[in-house]
Amino acid sequence: MEGSPSPFRTPVIPLDGPDKVTGAARYTFDLSLPGMLHAKVLRSPHPHARISSIDARPAESLVGVAAVVTGADAVRLPDPYYGVAIRDQPVIAIDKVRYVGDMVAAVAAIDEETAYRALNLIEVQYEPLPAVMTVEEALAEGAPLLFEAPAGGAAVPVGDGVTSLKEPRPNVLSEFGYRNGDVEAVLAGSDHVFEDRFTFSRINHFHLEPYVNVARASREQIELWSCNQDPFVLRNDLARIFGRPANIVRIHASYVGGGFGSKSFCKMEPLVVLLAVKAGRPVRLCLSLDEGLLTLTKHAGVLVLNTGVMADGRLTARQSEIQLDAGAYSDASAMTVVKAGYRITGPYRWMAVATCAYAVRTNSVPAGSFRGFGGTQASFASESQIDMIARRLGIDPYEFRRKNLLSVGEPFQPGDSGIDSDLLAGLDTVVDRLGYRRRAPSVAGTKRRGMGFAIGIKDGGGTNYAQALVKVLPSGRAIVNAATVEIGQGATTALCRIAAETLGLPLDRVRYGAIDTDHTPLNNGTHVSCATTVTGLAIERAAADALRQILEFAADRLGCSTGDLTLDHWTVRQGNYVHSLKPMIDDYFGAGYEFIGRGGTGFAYDPAAPLGARNLFWIPSWVGAEVEVDCETGRVVVKHLVVGADSGTSVNAQACRGQVEGAALQAFGQSLFEELRYHGTEPLNATPLAYRVPLASDLPERYESFVVEHGGPGPFGAKGIGESGMLGVAAAIANAIEDAVGVRLRQIPFTPERVLTAIEGAR
Fold first, then answer.
1. Which spans in 559-708 are helix H?
2. DSSP element (H, E) containing 402
């Protein structure tokens, strides 16, 4: 299954490349406004406590301090809470703190030193409360409640027959339920039923650009410069929180130096605006990397899978229970639990499915969206168990998968779209590159080698939408206006290349306009790998609209039909004749006329689809790993890693490879090293010096990637690829470890201590 030949075979220099390489690129971090103040935040030392009193008067009287904000200021706002679907996080703590690191007070001063000095002068009296640090503690009968009253917002909307509940039980933020068929009956009729439990640890996004925002506010306008990925979502949140019309809230978005989901949706932006409102001057808040570790994490979780299978290796049914640790506040947990619950079936054919997934509140760092958005947790558990079942039945893991994989065009679930990638072909490529069929037992002293692979999958598209403008100047240069944020994924180059190809212009004549919600068309955010497909479609349509206007103008001037003309490098071709456009435009309009094309794309709600909309495309992840395990130390070394993905059509082949490779190495680090740990109620390693990430010396000795082009619904057959590399890596490494030493690791990361404990337990 191959798409049509790509028009983008020629490699290009990324449009943002020179600025980033030379240091000329401007990030929010670099912004400075006249009269700007600097803000710092006082954070809770307690995991759970009532705020008895706050005395900010000594801080307010310090020379150089312009404003101090506490919960008393926040409570006067029209709606001082935010969160995705469920709004429970206050702009700053109101009456209560819910985790170590919760924001209690904030200071705006003439410089950072003065702000830090002021924080030390704020006196806070707490009444400590019992804390629940784990999902088990939070769900226990009589457990302390994080919230005594329901939060604002609503459950995530889903399709008919699917359950999505808001705060159904104490300390349960949200619940997702999906059922297809009589799973109990099918399991009862299966030859084998296997139950396995997997644990996913809490992981930080660890982006090197800190959270940073600059705000200024007046009665006429709220203006914010932010490293946020969702400028229009942020605009609407700020308008609601401050009770202002959306048209007087203005968001500027520039380059983002890494986010991976952590800079989606609201974070501390409302607090910066509140400080600016109270101080009457612009305010900048830049968090330290330590504070970033206490702002958002990937969901820890427990996933229990009951899976039925026949003796010949045919999968029958899967019943799953998923508990994700949402931390203290909602953020994007309600959406993540829906995605994890839906993706837990993996890319396989089932007679029946039943899933119940929960997001549970605990007194820990809030959890939210992370590259893969519930898919990494689901893929780890699903692909680990698939391998375990194959080995229990004595079936080769490759053959077991081949027998059960969904085929091209086969619906992922009833009512959803069909699979648009050849899953078996991708697996075959991994198997061949890994040398799986040619492998021989490898033993060197205490070290053992093994191979494993995995197929992750997630949905993309759905209810996302975008609008775009393409302006073509008389000189034949174009400006693309859209609100996809450049977060390192190469969106600016890909989206400009779509416009250039549609208009018949060289790429160096097209520029991506600055994002400003006052002028840039609407977009619902830069996430879920939708920029090239959804925003790209809007840009393609806008460019086509501009092209239509240009050809109609030229046809009118030349006295012919638009069908007789083509646009090529800002000349109009009419048979064997070539006409320059600029003299025609100048002669008719005078200098300065622009052709402005408009385009949009959106997908209607479909109640027949489980998630409320048929998924626009599917994001597969094919991964193979060869590992070496030291049986004396438990150290795991990945000797060979192979990762593949499907781009539909690669608009920028180099960027596609870079996205797959970068995501896979991020997942590699999470599989072997990364984990935000707690000792009782205290975060143990919430500092970059202690939070272990991979070093160059840890990387695989051999690393291969490939990108296939099976076609997609986006412009020129493109589809999203940015999250793909994350999905299958952890399971592939776990499967390789079992192949090497015969023990199963059910919790990431696979640290030497955990591996050695498993080996010694098996002995």
1. 581-589, 653-672
2. helix 397-404
Query: Please, are residues 389 and 744 in contact by the beta-carbon 8 Å criterion?
Result: no
- Answer whether 240's CB lies under 8 Å from 79's CB: yes
pLDDT, tens only, 381-403: 999 999 999 999 999 999 999 99
Q: What is the distance between the alpha carbons of residues 508 and 497, in angstroms, rounded to a whole number?
A: 9
Q: Is the pTM of this model over 0.90?
A: yes
Task: Write phi, then psi, for 506 (nearest 5 degrees).
Answer: -65, 150
Residue 44's DSSP bridge partners are none
| Whether residue 637 sits in one domain with residue 507 | no
Whether 696 and 654 share a structural domain: yes
Tell me the pLDDT tens digit for each residue of 223-254: 999 999 999 999 999 999 999 999 999 999 99
Question: What 8-state DSSP symbol labels residue 748?
Answer: S
Q: Is the peptide bond before 749 cis (omega within 30 degrees of 0)?
A: yes
Residue 563 belongs to what domain range? Answer: 467-601
Pairing of strands 222-226, 249-253: parallel
CB count within 10 Å of CB 187 equals: 21
Whether residues 240 and 286 fall in one domain: yes
| Residues belonging to the chain | 763
- Cα distance between residue 615 and residue 528, in whole Å: 12
Is 480 found in the same domain as 426? no
Domain end call among 264, 293, 322: 293
Low-confidence ranges of the chain (pLDDT < 50): 1-4
